Every structure is written in structure tokens, then in C-alpha cells.
Amino acid sequence: MDIYIKSFNRAYLLHRTIASIYHYLNGFDGTIVVLDDGTPQKYLDKIIELFPHVQIVKSPYYEQKSKDILSNKTPEKVIPANFWRDEVLKRSEYFILLEDDMWFNQPINYKDFTKNVYDLKMDMIKFLWLKNSKLISDNIIQKTEYFNIVQPKVLTKNVFLFDAIFRTNKFKLGSLVIKLFNHKLELLKYYHLYMVAGGVFSKRYYETCWKSSQNNVDELKQISQLLKSKINSNIGNSNTEILRTTLKTTATLISKENLGITVDIFKINEILNEEWLVGNTYKIEGFISDIPTVWIKSCILKLENGTDLYSNWEIWYESFSLSHKKIGSEA
């Protein structure tokens, strides 16, 4: 079972992701493939120096995006969905898909775990839910040593009704549900069935979710496609969260409308990438902990205008964290 990592311009995080695989996945014998969408080559060169067995495959947008980043331009926000899909379908029947801000924080016997996945013909196993019980089902139908198989209970599995309620509001069904139910909570339950990354996927599951050509991530459309396929019987989550992530940076800008504030995230990532490149980095193998704020602060304050940038980042981070806490998640 191979591991894919979606990566974009955060080599200082990608380092930790890969290191955690080798640290915690006992008996890992698969291939690690980084699906990169624009990380400048000098950072990728260091990743290969650190991990010579890792393969790096570049998206069709790589050259332009990396050029823009090096020129201090904001790259065009084009999601390489077809690239991700085509690459993950090339290798093992089951695979782990991560993003460059996710890392393992608990040990697992990889060969035994893989055998369970194949024997039980799993389609999706979630490793990460930010301590938010709303994102995993409590309707457990079978327990294994490593994961629970669940049968999620959602408002409807009828594709027409799902689309009408959560996507189109056809016949004002969405408005009706808002009056009768907790609309957001009912929608969150569909994430018992679905995730973008952060666990195990079967090829058929991933191909079903991402079968439509697109340059953005339309999660509701993917859930709709999943319901239509009726792939929902072999779904589960690890017994405990075996992945961590950080909310202290993002790969791309988040609109002001969503958080009330923006921050120059490309500048932040440039600063942190450069500090990492020259060896001034946080403790990579502190897998239990988040990236230290003190490290981020020390890196940013080296700049002449660093005080303002850091203050802006603090406000942004607080808003970003709060947006997750409002739905019951923790960083």
C-alpha cells in the first residue's frame, strides 16, 4: 500500500510528514510519492537529499506556479484534481493519501494494518478528525485492532434529495431542512462517508469521488457522486486519531469574507521555507506537538517589517482556529 502526499510550497511541513511515516509506520515497504504543485525546486532538492527513496511527481501547473512563487506573484488558484486522480490510480489498489500539513503521531504495524485493509476490502478509513466527534460515525458495526468499520446514519442517501437539500435547494427543500433540523449538523454527518485526504482510500472510492473533470474541490458534488455509486458499506476510521495537522499556516490565501482578515500566506511560507532550508527549523521529530509559535515568530521577526506581519498572522491564526472550533474541532 503506497503513500501519496499532496504538496504545495510548504517544504518545512513536508519534511515532518515524510519523517513521521518512517518513524511510526513499522514495516512500511511501500512507495512514498509526493504530488507537488509548485514548490520551488531548491526546496524539493533538499527533500530528496533528506529522503532519497521518495519520488516526486510534478503537476501540469508546476512550472508556472513555482515561477510565480519565486517572482513573489500569487499563483493562479487552479486545483490539479485530474493530476491527483490519475497518479493515485497508477499504483497499489489501496493507498494512503496525505497533505503536506499532516503527520503521523502514533505507531502502527504497517503490514498487519495493510492486511486488514485488503482482507476486509475497505474503501475509506479516516485517520484525522481534529478531535471532532461530529466528523466520525458512532454506529460501529465491526471493530478491528486498528480501525472501526462504521455504517453512517445520514439524513438521506437518495442522491436527488441530497442535491436538493444541500446543493441546489430545489423545491426549497434545503430551506425546509433548515427549519426542521440543524442543517450544518446534518451536513457534517456526510463527512462520516467522505474525506479529501488524511487516511486510506480504495481506487474505486477515489475514482468515484473525483471522476468529474474540475479545477476546484467541490466537496458536495463528490459526496453526491459517492451516494450515487452506493460505495458506503466499507467505511471506517482508525481507533484513535493517528494523524495531526496544523492550522498555523495554509497553502493558499483564504478569502477575507471567510475569516474577516487576510494574511500574506505566501510571504509567511517563503520565510519559513527559507529558514528551514538553511537549517534553522523547529524540532521536526516532535511529532506529538504542533509547530511551535515561537519558531514562527522568531522567523518572521527577522524581517525589517516583521512586527506588522507577525501581528497580522496572530489575528489571522486566531480567526482560523475559531472557525474550526465553531464546528467542534481542535487544532
Summarize the structure.
With 331 residues, the protein is of the alpha/beta class. The protein is built from 14 helices and 13 strands.
Structural key phrases:
single chain; 331 residues; alpha/beta; Spore Coat Polysaccharide Biosynthesis Protein SpsA, Chain A; 3 domains; nine-stranded mixed beta sheet; two-stranded parallel ribbon; 42% helix; globular
Class from secondary-structure proportions: alpha/beta
On the 0 to 100 scale, the average pLDDT is 91
Q: Unreliable segments (pLDDT under 50, ≥5 consecutive)?
A: none
Helix fraction, binned, reads 40-55%
CATH topology name of the largest domain, in short, is Spore Coat Polysaccharide Biosynthesis Protein SpsA, Chain A
Strands across the major sheet, in which order?
Answer: 4-3-1-5-11-8-12-10-9
Beta-strand segment tally: 13
Order of helices and strands: EHEEHEHHEEEHEEEHHHEHHEEHHHH
Give the termini separation. Answer: 28 Å
Number of helical elements:
14
Number of domains: 3
**Which CATH architecture of the largest domain?**
Alpha-Beta Complex
